[in-house]
Write a structure and sequence with these properties.
single chain, about 425 residues, alpha+beta, four-stranded antiparallel beta sheet, 6 helices, about 30% strand, elongated, disordered N terminus
């Protein structure tokens, strides 16, 4: 190679030539194969499970039985039970108030005396009737003799053997006997009306006697069941009048509270009942065995009392349009130990936790996994799917899905921004 001509070239041209040679002889950049990186997410593999529908309500307790003692008689209060004070507990069958019975004892004595007089009058009338019948029999016999004598005398007078004066005397005797018989018959005819009058007077007097006895019984007030006194309206030596409320009390055997449940919540609680709840069920035998209730006082939520649904009131709430469910608690004073355990008294505010019959084969997901009616699912080849779902109901931070998800679907729990259908995922199984 001849270097002389090259050396004769300018240095700049020489540099350009060297650069062209180096570029043309160099290897190209390395090629690296690859796609979009997968997005790691937590997923939950769904399975059918048993769901217990729940609902919560609040209300005020009231006694299931109340006693309002109203005075039915008038008189002075002569005795009052020492425990007859508001707030006191009194067993059933306890005499608690006594009203002066003197007036009613006198009325009873008078009625019994009148009955005795009427009974004596009835016996006298019976004796008179018997005597009249005996005399009537005798007078009828005398009349028969007088008529026979009159017949004989008339025949003899016609024959001229007896004077006319004797015939007139016989006729007078016969007429007198007839009048006597007629008077006795009239007296006997008056006996039945007199007996009816006495019977009516006896019935009226017996009614007065029974009324006096009833009033006498009403002078004593006795508790009909175990109760707690709430109000006393009569003091000793005070005169009470008929119709006056003297005692108000609440029974302590059971307490109840009206819980106003939204219609959807109530329907959910009984959704597992075959055929649902019919009108007959609501009016007669609501399937209360399908609903469990736990009651807790708001003042001490740690206390829990077993309760039961006893009935549904006759109409929906006029303003809220809710179902008024009556919940009953048996023995609300059981194990009461204030202040550690409070008894369930009237007007106490309580919370009610309802739990319906279990519903099997349900799909439930966390509420946070729902996005505007859609969920994110790791589909085939770990690609993201945005799937619309139909919600059955929501409770306790979970959503029960009616349509759109099936057992085995992998639900994406993490939030993805942006969530693009078909994007690659790196699923990581997580516990809920």
């Amino acid at each position: 190679m001849r270097l002389a001509p090259l050396l004769a070239l300018p240095p700049i041209a020489l540099g350009i030539a060297a650069a062209v040679w180096m570029i043309s002889s160099a290897q190209g950049p390395a090629q690296v194969k690859g796609g979009t990186p997968a997005h790691p997410v937590r997923v939950l593999t769904l399975a059918a499970q048993e769901i217990h529908p729940t609902a919560t309500a609040w209300g005020n307790l009231r006694a299931a039985e109340t006693w309002v003692a109203v005075s039915e008689v008038q008189g002075e209060v002569i005795w009052r039970h020492p425990d007859l004070e508001p707030g006191r507990l009194i067993p059933g069958g306890t005499e608690v108030l006594r009203i002066d019975p003197t007036d009613y004892e006198l009325a009873l004595a008078q009625a019994e005396a009148d009955l005795a007089a009427l009974s004596a009058e009835a016996e006298q009338l019976s004796a008179e009737a018997a005597n009249t019948r005996r005399i009537l029999d005798l007078e009828r016999e005398r009349l028969a003799l007088a008529e026979a004598d009159l017949t004989r005398t008339r025949r003899l007078t016609e024959q001229g053997t007896v004077p006319q004066a004797r015939l007139d005397e016989a006729e007078r005797a016969t007429l007198l006997a007839r009048r006597t018989v007629a008077e006795l018959e009239n007296s006997l005819a008056l006996i039945p009306p007199r007996e009816s009058r006495i019977a009516a007077q006896t019935a009226r007097t017996e009614a007065a006697r029974d009324r006096a006895r009833r009033s006498l019984d009403r002078t004593t007030l006795t508790t009909p069941f175990d109760l707690r006194v709430t109000e006393v309206g009569a003091e000793r030596f005070q005169t009470v009048a008929p119709g006056q409320v003297v005692i108000r009390a609440d029974g302590i055997a059971t307490a109840e509270v009206v819980a106003h449940l939204p219609i959807d919540s109530f329907r959910r609680l009984v959704a597992n009942v075959p055929g649902g709840v019919t009108l007959d069920d609501m009016m007669r035998d609501l399937p209360i065995t399908q609903i469990d209730v736990t009651l807790s006082p708001l003042a001490d939520p740690a206390q829990e009392w077993p309760a039961r649904v006893s009935r549904i009131e006759g109409a929906l709430d006029a303003r809220a349009r809710t179902v008024p469910v009556v919940v009953t608690v048996d023995d609300p004073y059981a194990d009461a130990d204030p202040p550690r355990r409070l008894p369930l008294v009237s007007n106490m505010q309580v919370q009610l936790a309802f739990q319906g019959a279990p519903q099997g084969g349900r799909i439930a997901i966390p509420e946070a996994a729902l996005h505007a009616g859609r969920v994110r699912v790791a589909g085939a080849d770990d690609l993201l799917e945005l799937r619309p779902v139909t919600i059955a109901f929501a409770q306790d931070g979970r959503v029960v899905i009616a349509e759109g998800l099936a057992p085995g679907d992998r639900l994406v729990l993490d939030d993805i921004a942006p969530a693009i259908p078909g994007m690659a995922l790196l699923p990581i199984e997580a516990s809920e």
